[in-house]
Amino acid sequence: MPEAISAALALFVDPHRLTMMLLGILVGLVIGILPGMGGIVSVAILLPFMVQLDAFAALAMVTGSLAVVHTSDTITSVLIGAPGSAASVTSVMEGHSLARQGQAARALSAAYLSSLIGGLIGALGLTLSIPIARPLVLSFGSPELFMLTALGVSFAGSLLGKDTRKGLAAGLLGLLLGTVGPSPTAAEVRFAFNQVYLSDGLDLAIVALGIFGIAEVVSLLARGGAVAQRTQLGRGWLQGLRDVFEHRWLVLRGSLIGMWAGVLPAIGATAGTLMAYGHVVATSRDRSKFGKGDIRGIIAPEAANNAVEAGDLVPTLLFSVPGSAPTAMIMGALLAYGIVPGPRIVTEHLDLIYTIVWSFAASNLIGAAIMFAASPALARLTYIPFNRLAPAVLLAMVVAAYQETQHVGDLVTLVALGILGYVMKASGWPRGPLLIGFVLANPLERYYHLTVNLYLRPEDWLLRPGVLILGALLLAPFVWGGVRYARTRTMRASAIVERHPIEPATVVSALIFLVFGYAWLVSRDFLPGAALMPVPVAAAGTVLSAIQFVQELRGKSRGAGEEDEPEGTPPGGHSRAAAHLLGFVLYGALIWIVGIQIASVLAIVVYLILMVRMRWYWAVGYAAAAVVALELMARVLGLHFPAGILR
Amino acid sequence: MRRIVVVGVLLALASWSLGAGAAQGQTPYYAGKTIEIIVPFGPGGGTDIESRFFAPFFEKHIAGNPKVLVRNMPGGGSILGANFYAQNAKPDGTQILATSGSTVIPFMLGVPQVRYDFAQWKLIKVNGVGGVIYVSPKTGVKTAADLLKPGEKLVYGGISATALDLTVLLLFEILGLDVRSVMGFEGRGPARLAFERGETNIDYQTTPAYLTQVVPLVSEGKAVPVMSMGFVNDRGQMLRDPAAPDLPTPYDVFQTLHQRKPDGLIRWKAYQSMVAAGFAFQKALWVPKATPPEAVTALLESIDKMGRDPQFRALSRNVLEGYTVFRGDRLEPAVLRSMRMTLDVNRYILNLLQTKYNVRF
Prior knowledge:
The complex is a heterodimer of chains A (647) and B (361). With 647 residues, chain A is mainly alpha-helical. Chain A contains 28 helices and 2 strands. Chain A has a two-stranded antiparallel sheet. The N and C termini of chain A lie far apart (60 Å). Chain B has 2 domains: 31-128 and 281-339, D-Maltodextrin-Binding Protein, domain 2; 131-276, D-Maltodextrin-Binding Protein, domain 2. Chain B has a 6-stranded mixed beta sheet, with helices on both faces. The longest helix of chain B is centred in the N-terminal third of the chain and has 18 residues, at 2-19. The chains are: A mainly alpha (647), B alpha/beta (361). The interface between A and B is large, with 73 and 69 residues.
């Protein structure tokens, strides 16, 4: 093995290959920055270039781009609040709050350093695990995968926020959204309302963009001003580095969680990142700052999402079972070079594997260095009045969403989830549990079904050592919580019960109750296999949201309660937000009718002149620049745009 | 922002310099044009990987060297993209639809959401793949003859009864095997992992996956191959799989197990049409019928040229899984015929799916 490592190093430092790797890194960084676009887009852009390269150069290039996507996606999440890719949503929750407090620089430097370390640990893990990965991966049967996803869902429990009932209901809503589309276990499509578009389920990138991106942008607009209110520029670069050093074990734990989530093909990058986040929150004593800008909530997930990509290469190379679309595309490219992933790759192409490892480690270093250098300039974006940035940001999100299926449904879903996201944010329904529920709904249902059907007697799977260990991890917080509750109960009883007035937000609780109730009614008619998850989820959601609604009516629970807003919403903020959402709906409808170019020009000019009070020539110039950027993206990135029904 | 622009310009220059240098002399139909291969599946799937593999070879071999792009339009298990193509494709040869067995099976079964009709299109190329069935040594099955009396209950892991698994389920029906089928795996890869973990004990893989992933298990004594899925030729006859010629076909196995020929049985006809549509003619490229003849000819000729290109032949061995790519015009009648099921066969399949696999249409 040492010979292979040094032989791979000699192959790797060839100038031509290094140049290709740099090209890959640049593409990966740019795609990471664009909201909602991640590894799939960057690999798709690079594939046509691969044909002209030898296998080593080609692999150095795609590995380079995949390695850094999750380094640069942070910047969009932190500065603008629009997730740079689905796996950086946690950086929206924590990093963006820090940016709003003028600490963008601290958040970014902590994120880059954790990303870098996560990537390096991933590369090291990949090197060490190659000889033992096969038995390790095979030791995880369906029951262990089920328990692991259940553990992931239970992590959502630590993100519930102040109001446990609302948090649980939000998690259930996420699980319910995750069941839209084909049942993994029976031949039935659920909650598709006869729309072919919905019959493959909702797309993760669009859910992340809608629930977090659109909601964040709208609430920033409603607030007015710039992202950051303070006047001093982003100092705190050193503070970010110090934070990482202080929480070094957190970086290690995050990396390991990410690595493992990547190795198991069922889990995926976004779930791995969210699990690292949930793990941090669950194991922290002081949870009061999570969701309002806690640096620990950036460090662990950022380390995890870079390590995931390294982990993902293990099943791809050793089993020819890729865990994600980008690695599947890399596998296809490998095949074209006559390299077949599988058990024989370790004996036949070890030098190639180590070339990948070297490229992965080097790209993480270079990517982090580039982002460090570029960020001070980019961080200034937070001091520009946000309403001038918003049109470009929204346009980028619409374009990203439309790449998923290029069906008008992408736009409708984005708009609908954007409204849902804002409404949840404004009325204190935490969105973290919703996203965890959404990404884990499918593996949870699938592996529960497979477990009970492959192991017919419960004792066959419940007594497996892996299941027992994971089960203990799963139950421990509940036992601990119970003990703590019993100790503090006497104190709680004396607390004064405050009576809340009924607020407009109670309508939200009523609507969520109606959604759950409807889903419960409908799902009872599903085939037995297809009803497996929707029925209990919808039933529990109906009960919880009904209690919430009644408690709000009785004044025992608050309808509103904006937890992720450190300063609260300014007066009239919600009605301004509603106006912006309405504007966004109209913009979406206009895109559908006349196509994205004309719609964007009209929307940008009208918005900038009427709302931002920009001079008309600046507004027209802005719109023209946007259209030019669109055309450039179409040519260079191979993107597709809604053409409009009139054309 | 400046970085984005710089990279964009670099990329634009790179792609421009790669695309230039083509198109000289008399202007062929495709000179200066761009072809879009519409893949109705997400990136990273088999059809996507194959289309992306083909794209540069089309650029090289279509007269006029057009630019060839791949466009993913996933949704509804490929129904959405194929419907889009049926309703919107320009009949000028610049948009090509890639289909897979998963596009054909809903069409054959008459799924109501399907708005496309293969008879409205012209076939450009078709290539297929075979499959191999293997069991765990714990079942005690050594050859196909032992399948009726295994040492332990046979358990099969599948994806969904209405997808390509239907072929395997029909195979179990024909041979009269007692198999417990558990659906719900994400793909054949994870299903193979479940076999390796001992959660299932009978499995199938496409022949190339079998050769690279399962043959090492066979030599370690962890898997026993029993038969191929058979291959169907252009006259609709079942042959041995060219990539696994040592293994018996289901036709042979039926005779061993039941001492008669399966010809004429409805369930045999059902299996044959499924093997043809889902395996032998699995991956196809189509253009609308109204496409100008010079465009169609240029596309068809590019398939011939690829067949003679040593680079294509060397590289395609893995991606195309060792099976020949056929020119569409020669096989179109056979491919379209394989999609037409007689009413009794259709009724048999729907009935089987409804009663045994709980499928509703």
